[in-house]
Amino acid sequence: MQPDEKITLTRRLIDHVDNNTTDYAESLLRVPFSAFTDPDLAERERAVVRRFPHIVAHIDELPGSGAFITPDLLGTPLLVVRQSDGTVRTFANVCRHRGAKVEMAGAGCKATFSCPYHRWAYGRDGSLRNMPHAEGFDGMDRNQYGLVEFPCEVRHGLVWVIPTPGVTLDIAATLGSKHDAEVAATGIGDSYQVRKDTWKLDMNWKIAVDGVQDSYHLCLLHTQTVCKHLQGNVTAFDLVDRSWRLVVARKSITEIRDADPQTFDVRDYSLANYTIYPGTMLVTEPQHFEIWTIVPDPEDPNVCYCTIRLLAPKKPETPREEKILEKNWDLLMKTLHEEDWFVTKTITENAHHGHVDELIYGRNELPGQVFHKMITRDAAMVGR
């Protein structure tokens, strides 16, 4: 972070703490409750989500040439493969012959991938390498029958994929040069993946995203957990096209009120969330990173999937370092399962039978407002 930006951000956060304020939207936002349950709207939203980047792996999950994983993304089966030159490419895990899955294993390392149905074989680069009884396919140009490839990029040690062929993918441009440089400066590109978990949640995906955008609830819902460390309802928000940085002040931030800017790092006194629309969050904290990926279920608007990766700046070398990371994970799990998700799953339940027509987002809920306006506008354009 540049020195001027560090000074400005620190002053913004301390001013908010002193004045009990935050960055505000211009007005209230009203969202129809049906926006969380309408199946037609959900289908249009899925079409939108499929045209934006999502994280499918940390580079540690693909340790060498030929290493692969086969996740699903919004119902699309993927084959993510580390290439001989160290790059990563992503394909549809679908045989071009009769449509079966090419690779059944969840992860491994291979030089070729052979469909179990008729043994059509594909290279790491997705090209069709072999087909038994090839004489039966005279006139077929096998160069045109490689695996379907999706846009894929490794940036900040993370593997990003857009599950729509031909769409431009440039994470640095998506974050914006300033925020991309800030993320790089955290050292996340050299991070170590401590653990990863995925949950199927009985709630609309936008409800799950809302929870990671909202500092308003931090010291109201989380009185015995994260409120011990973070200021509630205090956010500095900066938008760059379809991504944004929201920074939440820690309780300790007033300690640097009059400090020389050369003597501290504002990241030690705050939590920064770099959100990449529509459902990816890079949360940077002093001793670890949380990487969130939230996507809708491919069919049910009342279900979504949330994957969280816990990363450390480096592989822990001592029991104490391992214990600190375990403690951070345990706090996050307690906060999510006993507080956040315990409460927010009732929103989807109430949408069906609660006799409430609309929800209201306050001026102090600026990140949530930006997100909802963006997905509403994009969904309305689908099919036009």
Question: What does this molecule look like?
Answer:
The longest helix is centred in the last third of the chain and has 35 residues, at 319-353. It is globular and about 80 Å long. 28% of the residues lie in helices and 29% in strands. It is built from 8 helices and 21 strands. The model has no long low-confidence stretch (mean pLDDT 95). A 7-stranded antiparallel sheet has the order 14-20-19-18-17-16-15. With 384 residues, it is α+β, with helices and mostly antiparallel strands.
Shape: globular
Tell me the number of helical segments per DSSP (H or I, 4 or more residues long): 8
Report helical residue fraction. Answer: 25-40%
Mean pLDDT across the residues is 95
H-E string: HEHEEEEEEEEEEEEHHEHHEEEEEEHEH
List how many beta strands DSSP finds. 21
Keyphrases for this structure?
384 residues; alpha+beta; seven-stranded antiparallel beta sheet; six-stranded antiparallel beta sheet; 8 helices; 21 strands; globular
Write the SSE topology.
Blueprint: H1 3-19, E1 29-32, H2 39-49, E2 54-58, E3 67-69, E4 72-73, E5 76-82, E6 88-92, E7 107-109, E8 112-114, E9 121-123, E10 128-130, E11 149-150, E12 152-155, E13 158-161, H3 171-175, H4 177-185, E14 192-201, H5 205-213, H6 218-221, E15 230-240, E16 243-250, E17 270-276, E18 280-284, E19 289-296, E20 304-312, H7 319-353, E21 358-361, H8 366-381
Helix pairs in contact: 2-8, 5-8
